[in-house]
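Q: Here's a chain of 319 amino acids. Please give me its 3D structure as tokens.
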Amino acid sequence: MDLLEKIKNFTKQFDFEPEIENKENFTSNNKFLICGMGGSHLAGNYLKFLFPEIDIYVHKNYNLPNLSDLDNRLIVTISFSGNTEETLSSFEKALNEKLNLIVISKNGKLLELAKANNVSFIKLPDDEIVPRLGVGYILKTLIKLINQNIELNSEYLESEINLKEIEKKAQLLAEEIGSRIILIYSTEYLYPLIYYWKIIFNENSKYPAFFNFIPELCHNEIEIFENEKFNKNFFVLFVTAQDYIEDKNKKRIEILKDILEERKIKNEIINFTGKERLIIVVKNILFASFTSYYLAFNKNIDPVSTALIEEFKNKISQA
């Protein structure tokens, strides 16, 4: 798989037109429970940012969360492979409790179970792509579940996004990061943006990356920068979207950046803009993906392979 080409063609995923199978058993709802693991739940995080007015709960565990209104939600079980153990347990729990349920998957046992039990499902394209970068397919599908009338395609996204500029900035950022441990900071409201950076650094680049929120980190984590022997090992990445950050937190970012500069700690601010939230989301995915790719490339690391994750899955399946 040529991951760089997949990143460059990411916006084409939004040309996918999802179709609901077993539609006669589907009931729409304005409250959602999204169940998924790894790359399969990332679109759920972004959906919360895109539609803050809608009640969306993202579940990343076995079974179902202890919510009092499960019978009033659409339960969306997502597994790119269709074989994710935790998501299968969520599906079976929802099926047994006769909840309003739909499956999103490319293949595997989850899709087989949906067909066998006449559960509504949406089949993702048979694209050879890693789940963490297939978030466009799933996000387009979730958006259509919320509103079938929303028109969304690659032509529109590409008219709003300068791909070459993002790639060039990502190459420079990768060089700046070097071999440092990455600390990603933003506000809690922008959690979907910074969490994507973390997991894409972990999986593509095999880099240690951690995130925290402003203002909370100003009450504890900043003390680590008093330990000079660690400072040369850190790279602090501020991920922001100025229109969605309170003025007081903007000031906190400025002050924290000054503190880092005084201690000669490498840092960078990335600010995403766009005429709508979706543009910010897609820019974030592209910038993070390009950066993680070039980090891996610079260190001669395979950005596709996740050998340790597969080893863990094999061991847990035998436990």
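Q: Can you summarize the key feature?
A: The chain has a mean pLDDT of 96.
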